[in-house]
Amino acid sequence: MKLNRDFLTSGSGQVLLVGAVLLLGVLAVRWQNQSRPAPALPVVKPAPSPVLPKILTRGGVKFIAPPAPASGVPAPVATIAPANAITPDAVSALPLTLVISARPTLPEPTPPSAPYGRLIPCETVVALESNRLETPVIGLVTEDVWHDGRLVVPAGAEVHGRAALDRTRERLAAQGEWRIVWRTPDRDNGTELTVQGLALDREWDADTRQWGEHDGSAGLRGQVVKSDQDRELKLFAATFLATATAALQETRPTAGLLGESSVPTTTARNAVLAGTGAVLREQAQAIRESIARDGFYLRVPAGKPFYLYLTQTLDRSQARRSPALAHTAAPSRP
Questions:
Q1: Which residue range is the domain that position 283 belongs to?
Q2: Number of domains, the chain
Q3: Angle between helix 231-247 and helix 268-294 axes, rounded to 10 deg
Q4: Higher pLDDT pick, 128 / 89
Q5: Whole-structure pTM over 0.85, yes or no?
């Protein structure tokens, strides 16, 4: 059988040739796949099951009360208890002992105290005048007084004392017995404590932040007020006229043991001059005493700062309080 080359070059031959080549390729691929072992499939791990809420149900038997025994039904027969059973009568009562003990009492804290020579900053509440010494010295504590970490005298407490005029220094001297009155909104409101002390002047310049030269000096400084400006002139005139009347009297010489001297003569003129001189001398003495007593007085205004210097140990245990006083807040002014 001869291969016709013309047939292969024709269109039908080329189509047939291409189909044969494709058929041989498909057969070769299929044979290769059949001869190769199939690959193992990957092992798939099972997914963890999700945690679901569990519901617990409790089952039980409903309690049914037994029916009441009918009338005429015989009582239940008592069962024989075992030999080792304990009857209620065999149980003896346990001993019970009750002991009443007192509640432990804690020691009360000691009241605060302050040593000798404490300075309590205060200021006057009312004005003071030396011509009316019956006016008491009333002050308010402006700063807390502490000692050893404890409050001894709180700010706002009242101090009460008496004053006297110091004419040599033109000051009001307040010393002796003072009384401190607590005016606080706690249980100490109304507590009174008597102390010994004296008032010292307090001079503080808030602008310069410096203490004055009279700070700490004894007494309260104030304004000197003269009651009568003409009393000194009246005293001068009365003294001058009393001396002049004595010089205008008529005298006569008289010899004595100590020599010659002059004595007033007994005349009407001398009598008038002697009486006038005596009256003028009495008037001058009255004016002198008035000037010494009422010639000037000292006025200390309200709000004057001062120190209360304690001349004793301040012991709060000596304080007393009337039980009738109520525990109420105190006003800022007595």
A1: 231-254+262-294
A2: 2
A3: 160
A4: 128
A5: no
